[in-house]
Structure formats: structure tokens, C-alpha cells
Design goal:
With 403 residues, the protein is of the alpha+beta class. Helix 6 runs antiparallel to helix 8 and helix 10 crosses helix 11.
């Protein structure tokens, strides 16, 4: 996966994204972005600037190529391969549109509006619990249970089974961090096996006794359309479980980290709940739970003076791009009063623009004011570690106390 650089462009920055403690919001990355629109890394080409990132996410000469991504990480078979390669995001054209139409039933404006009262009630109940406790482990006490409950409500997962999903959905999100090695492959495999067996049993129950939920709708679609296979329905459900829980959980925790570092912004949100929508956009811009989006070159092509060979691996660095001063005049400052200058990149672009963006924003729009209305500014109350910067990113745990 070589890239050739036009000698007229001079040297290219190198960023070791696999190094312990690396982050995309550091001065090192900002300096590389100022020097060039892209950088090299141990995992391939990094796209650092917004305009190029936005354009390349829409460029039809790039694709997801799930099979190649698995091979690049040494996975040629087994549970991870069998789930990831046929995943909806790894299809294009008519096949992708058909799968997107099936799962899109969960994300219509009517469905999201119908979930808002449930989200609000659950967020207020959890916030009241934090207010009573004074100090908490935010991921376990709020960031995890809220999207888990919403996802379960949407899919039709019984409340008594919510806890079963905790470890599974946490570990499946590591699929985009396979390059880091260690126990990542084993954790993702174990999660997929456990979740897959549970989904199979739940699908059978929904077929026997359908209800007003997404799994029932997908099971019914399988019976009505001969093109819909049981394997496709199972894959869609597992992918939806992962997407609807893991990314939102980390985005909630990232929001608390951002506000802990900017307590004045928290106080402002507490006094101005009308800023909730703008605050959510700013949190997602500043500390996105999806700080990277990958693509492969489907063919040889030239872009901005760079010769990109077929199969080259490119990573759009969302965090860096969403702080790019060429697009965001106050890109290096966290400020919920500044309207967004451009669409967020963490949800992708073009035909693969994330279906769940409205649901994710609805959860945060309800959650942040519910917390800010009851609690003073958050402060980190102990040591915590981060998920890897490549893939779904956020604190593994987050001890907080509130002012």
C-alpha cells in the first residue's frame, strides 16, 4: 500500500498513531495539519484537513472494502470476518440502498420523535441519581445505561436482558482498532459470538410474537422479500446494536471530558437550555466518538498532487479536520455559542452518511440539559484511560464529581 509523493510538495509529516498516549487533538497533529493536508503513519495515509477529508469521503474512487480491511489486520476468517465483510457499510450501489432501506425504518423522523419522551424521562431519572450521589463513575452510571435503554427500546430487547449487552457492545466497537493487536481480536470475537446467539434467539421470539419494534419489522421484511436472507437480518441487527449503543456512550463521556475542561461552558448550558442543540454539535466537533473514518482506493488516481495507488489505505482524521482553522475560524476553541461552520465529518458523507445521526443527537440533546440543570460543572475525580484513538474513542471509565 505505497503512496508516491510529488517531490514539489516537499517533506510529508509522519504521525505515529499507534504510540501510547497519541491523540488527534494535540499540538503535534495541529502542526502536521498546518504543514500539509495529509501525513504518513504506520497504518497508512492520514487526511488532516477538512476540505480534503470531506471531498474524499464522497469520492467514488474510494470504498470501504471490508475484506481488505480484515486482511490488512490479519483476519481471514472466523466470527469477525463473517460479520464485518458483509456489513451494510461495506456494500455500495443497489445492494447498499436495499439494506439501508430495511434498517432505515428505525431512523425516520416519526420514529425519533416517538422516542424523545422515553429518552427525556430516562435521562432525567439518571441525572437525578447522579445529583443524589454527588460523585459517580459516569460511564457506568449514565453514559452506558442511557443509550443501552434507548437502543433496547428501539429494537425490542426486554429490559431484563439489558445487562447482557454491556460487555458485548463495548467490545464489538474495538473492531476498528484491530491494528493495535493485543487481546483486541479475542474480545471482539467473544462479543460477536455471544451477541449473535442472543440475536438468533430473539429473532425467533419476534417471529412467533411480533411487536412494534425494529427486530419484528426486519423479521417481517425477511418473510415478505425473498432477497432478504436470515444472515442479512442478523448482520443488520448486530450492526445496529453496536452503532446505536457504543458510539453514543462514548460521545456522552467525551462531552463530560470537554465540559470538565471548560466549566464556564457547562454553566452557560445550565442557564441556557436553548443552546442544547448547538452544544451537542460543538461536543461532537471537539471530541467526536468516531475520530477516524477509513477508506481504500478502489483504483489508481491523482488527488491534490498525490498519486494514490489502488488499495492504498486512507484515514480521514475527523478530530483534526473538525478543528481545521481553514474552515472553523475558532476551531481550536470549545465554545457552544459558536454555530457550526460546516457539517460534521464523524458521521461520514455521501451514500454512507450515518443513518443514526438524528437518534444520536436526540439522545445528547435530551441528556446534556438534564444534567446541566441539576448539576454543577463536572470535574474529573480520578485517573482514567481512553479507548484507542483509531476506531470508536472515549474514556473506558470516567470518575466525576459535580460542582
Amino acid at each position: 500500500m505505497a503512496t508516491t509523493v510529488d517531490s514539489a510538495r516537499g517533506g510529508v509529516p509522519f504521525l505515529d498513531v499507534t504510540a501510547p498516549g497519541f491523540g488527534f487533538g494535540t499540538p503535534e497533529v495541529a502542526a502536521a495539519q498546518a504543514e500539509n493536508w495529509y501525513a504518513d503513519s504506520p497504518v497508512g495515509l492520514l487526511v488532516l484537513r477538512y476540505a480534503e477529508g470531506h471531498a474524499l469521503l464522497r469520492d467514488q474512487r474510494l470504498d470501504h472494502n471490508g475484506k481488505r480491511f480484515m486482511e490488512m489486520n490479519g483476519v481471514t476468517g472466523g466470527p469477525i470476518h463473517d460479520w464485518f465483510v458483509p456489513m451494510i457499510m461495506n456494500h455500495d450501489g443497489a445492494h447498499h440502498r436495499r439494506l439501508r432501506g430495511l434498517v432505515g425504518k428505525a431512523f425516520t423522523p416519526k420514529m425519533i420523535a416517538g422516542l424523545r419522551p422515553f429518552i427525556r424521562t430516562r435521562a432525567e431519572k439518571l441525572a437525578a441519581g447522579l445529583a443524589a450521589a454527588g460523585e459517580c463513575e459516569f460511564v457506568e452510571d449514565f453514559a452506558n445505561p442511557l443509550p443501552l435503554a434507548v437502543m433496547s427500546e428501539m429494537l425490542g430487547v426486554p429490559p431484563e436482558d439489558h445487562d447482557l449487552f454491556h460487555t458485548w457492545t463495548t467490545d464489538i466497537g474495538l473492531v476498528f482498532s484491530l491494528a493495535l493487536g493485543g487481546d483486541v481480536v479475542a474480545r471482539v470475537e467473544t462479543a460477536l459470538v455471544g451477541l449473535g446467539e442472543y440475536i438468533d434467539a430473539l429473532m425467533a421470539r419476534k417471529q412467533a410474537a411480533p411487536a412494534a419494534d425494529l427486530i419484528s419489522a426486519l423479521v417481517a421484511a425477511r418473510g415478505e422479500d425473498p432477497l432478504v436472507s436470515p444472515a442479512e437480518v442478523r448482520n443488520l441487527i448486530i450492526t445496529t446494536v453496536f452503532a446505536a449503543h457504543d458510539t453514543t456512550r462514548h460521545q456522552l463521556a467525551n462531552a463530560m471530558v470537554a465540559f470538565a475542561r471548560h466549566p464556564d461552558q457547562w454553566r452557560l448550558l445550565g442557564s441556557r437550555p436553548d443552546l442544547a442543540g448547538q452544544a451537542v454539535d460543538e461536543v461532537m466537533r471537539w471530541l467526536p466518538s468516531s475520530p477516524t473514518i477509513y477508506r481504500f482506493a478502489a483504483e489508481d488516481f491523482e488527488y491534490q498532487g498525490l498519486t494514490i495507488a489502488k488499495d492504498t489505505f486512507l484515514t480521514v482524521c475527523v478530530t483534526a479536520a473538525q478543528r481545521d482553522p481553514r474552515v472553523f475560524a475558532h476551531g481550536g476553541t470549545f465554545d457552544i455559542t459558536v454555530p457550526g461552520a460546516a457539517p460534521l465529518l464523524q458521521f461520514g458523507a455521501g451514500p454512507h452518511h450515518c443513518l443514526g445521526i438524528a437518534l444520536a443527537k436526540a439522545e445528547l440533546v435530551e441528556a446534556l440539559p438534564a444534567l446541566a440543570a441539576r448539576l454543577g460543572p463536572p470535574a474529573v475525580a480520578g485517573e482514567f484511560t481512553w479507548r484507542p484513538p483509531i476506531g470508536i474513542h472515549g474514556p473506558n471509565s470516567l470518575p466525576l464529581r459535580f460542582g
